[in-house]
Structure formats: structure tokens, C-alpha cells
Amino acid sequence: MNLNSLLFALGQTTSTPPPPTTDQVDSGFVYVIAAFIAVWLLIAVYLFWLNRRQESLRQEVEQLRQEEAERQSTQAPAPTAPFTELDPKLEVSGTPQTPQGNLRG
User: Fold this and answer.
1) Domain range annotation of the chain
2) Which of 31, 70, 79, 101 has the least CB density, counted as fewest CB within 10 Å?
3) Does residue 91 contact residue 97 with C-beta atoms inside 8 Å?
4) How far is CA 91 from each of CA 73, 84, 98, 100, 101, rounded to the nearest angstrom?
5) Residue pLDDT, tens place only, 33-69
6) How far apart are CA 70 and CA 64, in angstroms?
7) How much is the pLDDT for 94?
8) Residue 28: which residues within 8 A CB-CB, separation 6 or more?
9) Are residues 22 and 30 in contact, defined by beta-carbon separation less than 8 angstroms?
10) How far is CA 27 from CA 21, 32, 38, 40, 56, in A?
């Protein structure tokens, strides 16, 4: 007897299992409901955690914005037009200035 005929014989001798009883169906249904509730509880806990984390990050961003505003208000205000005054050392005519002193030291 070769392997193929043995597998064919085993396939022919196995029968389908009997249909489940009402008690088995009811106990299986309880497990399905329990799993369904567990999944929804996990989703709810995860969403609650995400909401808390988002609120924490929102508060941190607001605190950083306030600190930045305070830091900018304590610093000297930046000039609105930084190039309004001419440097008296520069020549306007466009001729280059000669360096004073030795450049080597």
C-alpha cells in the first residue's frame, strides 16, 4: 500500500463531526460576547489614554507659547528698519577705503 492510497483511505474513513448541541452553542456564544466586550473595553481605554495625552500635549504647547511670549517681551525690541542709519566710516562715493595699519598684526 503506498502513501497516496493510505491518505485516500484515511480521508474516506473520517466522517464529519456531529452538529454541536444547544449547550455547546450557548457556551460558545458567551465567549463571543465576552471577547466582543473585551475588545470594546480595550478600544475605550485606548481612546481615553489618547485623549489624556492630547490634552497634556496641548497644555505643554500653551505653556511653551506663554514662555516664548514672556521671553520676547523682556528682550529689547528689534529695530524696525535696521539700515536707516549710515555708518560714518563708510564712503558713499563707492571708492574703496584703504585699510589702516598692518593687516598682519
Assistant:
1) 40-73
2) 101
3) yes
4) 37, 16, 11, 15, 18
5) 999 999 999 999 999 999 999 999 999 999 999 999 9
6) 10
7) 59
8) 20
9) no
10) 10, 9, 17, 20, 44
